Amino acid sequence: MRVGNVKSKVSRIAVAVSVAAALGLTAACGGGGGDGGKGAKPSKAKGSEAAQADPKASPAGSGALTRAELEKAALASGDVKGYGVKKTAASDIGLDSVPADPAACQPVADMFLFTSDPAARAAVGRSFAAKDDLDASVTSLALLAYGSGEAEQVLDGLRTSTGKCTKYEHTGYQYSGVKVLKDPGLGDESVAYRLLGSIEGASVPTTFTVVRVGTTVVTFTAMNMLDGDKVKVPSAIVDAQLKKLKKLKKATA
């Protein structure tokens, strides 16, 4: 497993959030502006690299959207007022799952990297920077396509894990304060939770909203080192993404 690659990408998350926080603090103190950071994140588990290499690939009868379809469904510039949108690099999609300690926290640890077991058949990601200089948040999402019955397994695994896991170690970093949040009642089913990561000396409060729409799972994450107690996924991003995904699924049904 490419633990080093995964760890370096996790470290970049902390750097991105630190930059966003610094920019937000500077703006709040009247020292000038700047965009919030870019929260591109690593993703996806073992077995998915072939699907990422071929955007049209999807096993016959799997029910999974292809990567090309996920790209059509993903948010683009202009889709969400007040936010800049950036595609997650292809190199950040398809990383191996790395064992977490304790094992009960594995689904939570995997989803921090947009990874899962079972592995998604295809995945795309987006990162968002608020155009408001006072907003130091970093928001990301991933659309993960699964075969029949697999998306349900992912949500079940997260639901069980967040109920048992309180803290864990993953790729040499410490995570604590794992807490289940109120189910937002989105899509066919959803879960929400938060945690605090300790990465490269930085405390990174992170909130997750994970939604299943048919065989597709959409994972939204938000980080904000200036206002960790109130960090949350912007509803404008969630609503716009789910609306666009449902529109594509209806068109391809």
TrEMBL record:
Region of interest (Disordered), residue spans: 29-64
Q: What span is annotated as the signal peptide, if there is one?
A: 1-27
Q: Which UniProt keywords apply?
A: Signal
Gly residues bias: where? 29-39
Q: Specify the superkingdom.
A: Bacteria
Protein's name according to its UniProt entry: Secreted protein
